[in-house]
Amino acid sequence: MTREDLEELTTTFYVAAPEGTPWGLDGEQFATGLRQLSVQAVTAPLTAPQDMTEQLAFDGHSLVFAVHVGDVPIDGQFMEASQSLNIGPCTAADAAAFIEWFQSLLPRGARMRFNSEEGVESGDMEDYWIPTGAQRDAVVEELLRHLDEAVDE
């Protein structure tokens, strides 16, 4: 795929704390952060898992959300027990806008691993990493680099 194709590709991005090193973020803190980002943010309890990824992380303390990061609409799920997010489906640039903001909720120096629906479907179960404190452009580059490896032409 060309870079332009990768930039336009919509997929779900899975972001999580490193195994054994939780962020310490609960659903209420996450929802409060979303409301501070936008008073129009919407959250609701995730009452039942909708797919296998959510089922693996479902603990009864999970939220679905919809919010705008600037002019970028984002929706997804936050799973408290697994300290993870499902973002999208959206483009890498849209996910990067959310990830850049999301870092503000995490303890200083917290790490984030990620994968994508494209990666999982291609059998790539490796963890990819967002550089700590990365700004939007750097996050976009990491997400696109991953997609370039994960997407079959």
Kindly describe this structure.
Helices cover 35% and strands 27% of the residues. The protein is α+β, with helices and mostly antiparallel strands. The chain has one domain (3-150): S-adenosylmethionine decarboxylase, CATH 3.60.90. A 7-stranded antiparallel sheet has the order 2-3-4-5-1-6-7. It is globular. The model has no long low-confidence stretch (mean pLDDT 90).
CATH architecture: 4-Layer Sandwich
Straight-line N-to-C gap: 6 Å
Mean pLDDT score: 90
In total, how many beta strands?
7
- Give the strand order of the largest sheet, numbering strands 1, 2, ... along the chain: 2-3-4-5-1-6-7
Number of domains: 1
Helical fraction equals: 25-40%
Instruction: Sketch the topology as an H/E string, one letter per element.
Output: HEHEHEEEHEHEH
Approximate strand percentage: 25-35%
Fill in the CATH topology.
S-adenosylmethionine decarboxylase
* Broad CATH class: Alpha Beta
In short:
The protein has 153 residues and is α+β, with helices and mostly antiparallel strands. The protein has helices at 3-8, 27-37, 52-57, 92-102, 117-121, 136-150; strands spanning 11-16, 42-45, 62-69, 72-79, 84-90, 112-116, 128-130. Helix 4 crosses helix 6.
Secondary-structure map:
Blueprint: H1 3-8, E1 11-16, H2 27-37, E2 42-45, H3 52-57, E3 62-69, E4 72-79, E5 84-90, H4 92-102, E6 112-116, H5 117-121, E7 128-130, H6 136-150
Antiparallel strand pairs: 1-5, 1-6, 2-3, 3-4, 4-5, 6-7
Helix pairs in contact: 4-6
Key structural traits:
about 150 residues; alpha+beta; S-adenosylmethionine decarboxylase; seven-stranded antiparallel beta sheet
